[in-house]
Amino acid sequence: MKARSITMLGTGLIGEFYTMTIHGQRGRDRVRVVYSRSAERGTAFSERWGIPEHTTDIAAAVNHPDTDVVVVGLPNHLHEEAVKLAAAAGKPVLCTKPLARTADEARRMLDAVEQAGVFAGYLEDLCYTPKSLKAFRAVQAGAIGDVTWVRSRETHPGPHSAWFWDGRLTGGGAIVDLGCHCIEIIRDFVGKGNRPVEVMCVTDTLVHPIDDEDNAIALIRFESGATGQFEVSWTFRGGMDLRDEVAGTHGTIWINHFLRTGFEMFIAGGSAGYVAEKAEAGSGWLFPVGDEVSELGYVDMFTDMFRAMEEGRLPQETFYDGYVVNAIMDACYRSARTRQWESVQLEWRGGVSPRIARVPELYEGLIVIKREILPDGRQKLILKDPASGGFVDRVVAG
Amino acid sequence: MKARSITMLGTGLIGEFYTMTIHGQRGRDRVRVVYSRSAERGTAFSERWGIPEHTTDIAAAVNHPDTDVVVVGLPNHLHEEAVKLAAAAGKPVLCTKPLARTADEARRMLDAVEQAGVFAGYLEDLCYTPKSLKAFRAVQAGAIGDVTWVRSRETHPGPHSAWFWDGRLTGGGAIVDLGCHCIEIIRDFVGKGNRPVEVMCVTDTLVHPIDDEDNAIALIRFESGATGQFEVSWTFRGGMDLRDEVAGTHGTIWINHFLRTGFEMFIAGGSAGYVAEKAEAGSGWLFPVGDEVSELGYVDMFTDMFRAMEEGRLPQETFYDGYVVNAIMDACYRSARTRQWESVQLEWRGGVSPRIARVPELYEGLIVIKREILPDGRQKLILKDPASGGFVDRVVAG
Amino acid sequence: MKARSITMLGTGLIGEFYTMTIHGQRGRDRVRVVYSRSAERGTAFSERWGIPEHTTDIAAAVNHPDTDVVVVGLPNHLHEEAVKLAAAAGKPVLCTKPLARTADEARRMLDAVEQAGVFAGYLEDLCYTPKSLKAFRAVQAGAIGDVTWVRSRETHPGPHSAWFWDGRLTGGGAIVDLGCHCIEIIRDFVGKGNRPVEVMCVTDTLVHPIDDEDNAIALIRFESGATGQFEVSWTFRGGMDLRDEVAGTHGTIWINHFLRTGFEMFIAGGSAGYVAEKAEAGSGWLFPVGDEVSELGYVDMFTDMFRAMEEGRLPQETFYDGYVVNAIMDACYRSARTRQWESVQLEWRGGVSPRIARVPELYEGLIVIKREILPDGRQKLILKDPASGGFVDRVVAG
Amino acid sequence: MKARSITMLGTGLIGEFYTMTIHGQRGRDRVRVVYSRSAERGTAFSERWGIPEHTTDIAAAVNHPDTDVVVVGLPNHLHEEAVKLAAAAGKPVLCTKPLARTADEARRMLDAVEQAGVFAGYLEDLCYTPKSLKAFRAVQAGAIGDVTWVRSRETHPGPHSAWFWDGRLTGGGAIVDLGCHCIEIIRDFVGKGNRPVEVMCVTDTLVHPIDDEDNAIALIRFESGATGQFEVSWTFRGGMDLRDEVAGTHGTIWINHFLRTGFEMFIAGGSAGYVAEKAEAGSGWLFPVGDEVSELGYVDMFTDMFRAMEEGRLPQETFYDGYVVNAIMDACYRSARTRQWESVQLEWRGGVSPRIARVPELYEGLIVIKREILPDGRQKLILKDPASGGFVDRVVAG
Fold it and tell me: Residue A127: pLDDT above 60?
């Protein structure tokens, strides 16, 4: 494996998490130069993480002669410029989520990297949590049958940085901030080749005095007949609620990434120190997270990205995926305005998906609706007469 | 307190639960006569529960000279007739859920009891679980501020009785069976005086070879701005998933009624006997429920009903509530067909609800978006300049 | 069923819970007269619960002509006198836990009721929780095989009433207060016919400036080879931790009665009102209990007591059980002093228990230590050669 | 950071986990040569992990000219020889748990590395889980006050490899296999400078036809007055139960490493593939673990070891710690035989610990036993009169 030398763009919370991950444990890769719009933040950041250089010149950072990967950890409105600079420099580029503010912007970024022929990875960490990865593999192996429904939920009391609240810079509110995670998680569960057809979305500005949504719920219909459902909010009280629920024809998956992970503390008073991202309290019952950069997927994400570069393959999460997510978010915002189901408009590369299987079983000419095991081992069948349309039950040997 | 003598109509699962509850613990009330369409089931039921008489004549059961309450535990298509008989007999009548198959039918039943002037209770057990009652009281006391969102979910692998699967008898599929619970739970949390304005609903028939929906998701918008969300399914794998989640401006409530209630068993093989309603397995990790008739609300429900009769007041759940639930379900079915938001059409008796409160706080002329406590005790304010629309953050003393 | 008219002795927290239970729901039984050492508390209590009479004369209360059951809810040092009065009056007597301060005292009480021939019930509520009852039945039905180990834990920050802290009145500290529950729960799981042979106990006074133990751990060895383990404390932080864990040769049971029962609230500030007995906080994450008198076993306990009287049988929990519990607690206190295993000294009425079964299976002349299912369906056997004493593994068809 | 080139001794499950960790993610370190007693296993292992060389000559492996660290992942009876070879070679050595079969053996190993002056690390992974590390830091920062009690529990249905069952090779049964983890976890919570004074231990051979214990419970008394409690078993049913509970004077910590970590799957039938180490079932409700090598502490453990080498400091877990653990296990086995409290015999290097603090607060000359907040905001004090020894309660302003 080759060690990577990285240009890090951005010194906010996401830059912290990325650098903490890359420099963490026994990692071979290192941030070589960091770009910040503020010299002061750049200095502090490079000292904190032992980074040799920092600059306020984004082009100089991207074109630094000693780096071979560019990581974009900037506010949303600066992604396009950064990605185009990296493409022009012919360097692999990894861009934080959401890829862009709109599908059009994402499309231009996708075109830029494809035309330059550079490796491009979409840094969608929550699709790389260890739990998610194991769950995706189980679903792909057929463990729960056909996926019929996915609920992905991310809610907390609101972002830490001022720019997140300014829809002019971000492209929206809670959907652009959190919904992008949920949408891609849903896609990983229903299958990336499963075309998102249309969406219905409701947005509200319930609590915070802002113009954009601080709360949203959306339904996404996929070609297979599966439904994705996301709930995002900046108004949740109690910490960060990060859960995924998946229903399949033969099984169920429930994942809780944050508030109930088998680590519970009660503090009678005073402070327990830093508990977890977006924790709301320092006493009472607290629910810390063990190793956030691992649990939130950052570790496995960068491993996949750097390995994919070496192996000449696509990473699990690509710029095309980021573009699809933006297209779905665009449809969500349209739907919230029109109050109609809105079709997802995108260039689809994913092929065609069959409908969820539903092959009726017959018993003596009647359609089997359900089988139940009785306490004595016999089976109770609920049967439908295709002729009359009537239903009966019958107990048979087990 | 007066002991009640009861006419029980119906000997299915719900009749079992009702009689088990009424005859349970140290209850003073007794079923005096039971009506079943089948003499065989009537005989077995009356013997099982020590009921003096049984009959296949519904009018005789209702008009039995020694009973003073009629409990309707029949399939949906038989509710109207039973309630009208009770009204004609001038007896208090308690009717199982859903009240009717449609709002029109419910309305006729409501009119019948109101015109007869008899006490009428809607047997919506899940609004009476001990957890629900405590949560409703906490919400009404303002513990979590204004309710912004309620998710109520009831999913399992499908009903036990054949008639449940026949939409001609029930009025629909999973919505009529399970959604009625969720809707009334949502109403209890957002406030019964909070008018349900419109709904958006998606239905599917995913797994079972039937004509009606085995899966549905709906959004309900209330006058206050709160959103109710229900998920119902006959395709869930893993037992009975019965959960409610409530978000308020100052707090959160999560209730799990069934699968994770602090009672866990692992059985290496063989059988653990009866585990809980709709449990799917007899070995491996199982999640039994302590006392189902208490946990599912039956005990508190009948207590409220009988006490309300004595105290000359309305019970918590009335026929009017059942009618509102039917009106919302009607709108759900319309919406599933038209794929539009559909208004809830009903005679509203609940008054007017104000919008969820949102009063911006000012700090030196700027709008406070969020306050965060820093580890050193100081506060970080995220502020919006009302003039420029820009956002900044500022750290101040705690 | 006959309605019972009750003499209630005591107006503290336990008297409240008992009366709340008996007068709750649709109960037919009523408290007719209440005795309190304080006229003021007696007046308030009788008004609160609608009790016709109150008195400060215990003999008058017991001998009241219109009552047919005496319930003892007094501090420990007053149990013996109260039970002897009831025995003399020839009335059934139900006594709260612990039965007595020592096995000698318990023995005198047992003799008194046996000589008088009156019904006597031991009000050990935690052996009657709905979860416990279902778990006992599952264990008795063989669901988890032979019970090998039971852990019962009851810890909280300390009692609410002053007298509880005075070992001269109670007979000890946390063991007498809480250990009595744990011991009887353990006995119900390992089998009441399973003789408690000896105990090892450690006590500490860790936090509170008292003379008696505020913390204790004990191991109890039963004739079958099973081990009971209890942990009791008045120093726990976080509410009331009430858990039971049972290991069997074929299964496992975990019960959480209080802090994690599927009911979770987050309150951003202010107060959620009364949360649950011994909750420590009114904001942050809280874990309320639905219906405490049901969840803590009071409802099923009184039902069993009154039904047992009617049916002329023993209740699940008898004075003899209370006496056994006191004998085990006596041995615990001795062991804490001598730092030795101490034998449990009691008149044993429970017969003889066989050892936990352990029949080695043979495979081609070797002893099978363990079987594991491999991912490919084959089985891996771990085998012991009885001749050499050596161990090998071997993979065979599944 | 320097990349390490490693001699791996052993190709069993532990060698797999170690190599998976070292070669995982973006790690810079690599196994250069692997030693196995079996050429066949050595070949397979080196191919599976891309290791350049393998050998059946342990001395050749240790003395390999291109390696600079020796990792011992061999059965217990081979640790001493391997460590002495590494010491003789002057190479840093990391040895798996338990360090040795007895304290005497551990002491010889400790002497060997100290005399050779080589870095020596004790590979106690469960003291390095992300949850454990965060909890240790919280405790060290005083978040829960003085630690009074730690329960550490590790139970599962028994080891996968034949040699584990042979006490002649391992030094015992479940205590040597699992208790060593629990003991060191307990030490990390109560403080490594807190001298273990004496132990009381019970062992049983309950289920498996072996000579050593398949079940054990022990109490460890520390100089501060804290109590450690461990429960280990090879007879648990339901998977691997790996939990730690910590009580402090001001707080509580509960950690569940395996069975309830926020990842739940229900599989209706068939198989979900590999679920987690020692999972017992492939259908029904399953509780997988996200990333086992991270969650079980292997990642942070090797990071600490290699960083400690670079920084010239001791790792968190040293050979001295391993020796202390062996000394405590020796005392456990003695106690199980003598049925007495047995003192822990060891050369203590940890200094002296003060007693858990207990400073009584006074209120108007009375000792404050407890303060409770009443619903109306006032405080209820429970007070002891130091003169009379009597207890009273008093309500005061909040």
Answer: yes
Question: How many whole angstroms separate alpha carbon B95 and alpha carbon B100?
Answer: 9
Q: Give the model confidence (pLDDT) of D254-291 as tens digits.
A: 999 999 999 999 998 644 455 566 666 678 999 999 99
For residue C18, give how far its alpha carbon lies from the nearest alpha carbon of chain A (Å).
Answer: 31
Gap from D125 CA to chain C (nearest CA, Å): 25
What pLDDT digit, counting tens, does each position of A190-240 carry? Answer: 999 999 999 999 999 999 989 999 999 999 999 999 999 999 999 999 999
Using alpha carbons, select from B385, B333, B5 the residue that is nearest to residue B172: B333
Query: Which of D168, D358, D382 is the closest to C165 by Cβ?
Result: D382
Closest CA to D305 of D113, D5, D93, D86: D93
What is the arrangement of strands in the sheet containing B391-396, beginning at the earlier edge strand? B361-363, B366-373, B379-384, B391-396
Ranking A231-245, A363-377, D82-96 by mean pLDDT, the lowest is: A363-377
The 10s digit of each residue's pLDDT in C64-81 is: 999 999 999 999 999 999
- In 3-state terms chain B splits into helix, strand, coil percentages (rounded to 5) of 35, 25, 40
Residue A234: other Cβ atoms inside 10 A: 27
> Please, are residues B143 and B171 in contact by the beta-carbon 8 Å criterion?
no
Listed in sequence order, the residues at least 6 apart from B210 whose beta carbon sits closer than 8 Å to its beta carbon are A369, A384, B165, B167, B173
D29 neighbors D306 (Cβ within 8 angstroms): yes
Q: Which tokens is D351 given? A: 């200094």
Interface test with A, best of B155, B165, B358 (most A CBs within 10 A): B165
Mutate to test the interface with B, among C18, C26, C245, C252 (most CBs of B within 10 A): C26
DSSP assigned state of A172: S
Residues of D in contact with B280 (CB under 8 A): 266, 268
pLDDT confidence bin for B377, thresholds 50/70/90? confident
pLDDT in tens, D289-309: 999 999 999 999 999 999 999
**Interface list for D 117-176 with A (CB within 8 A):** 129-131, 133-135, 137-138, 141-145
Average pLDDT of the residues of chain A: 94
| Chain D contact set for B268 (CB, 8 A) | 237, 280
ipTM of the complex: 0.94
Asked if residue A190 lies in contact with residue A134, where contact means CB atoms within 8 angstroms, the answer is no
Q: What residues of chain B lie within 8 A of the CB of C131, using their CB?
A: 262-263, 288, 290
Q: Are B72 and B99 in contact, with CB atoms under 8 Å apart? A: no
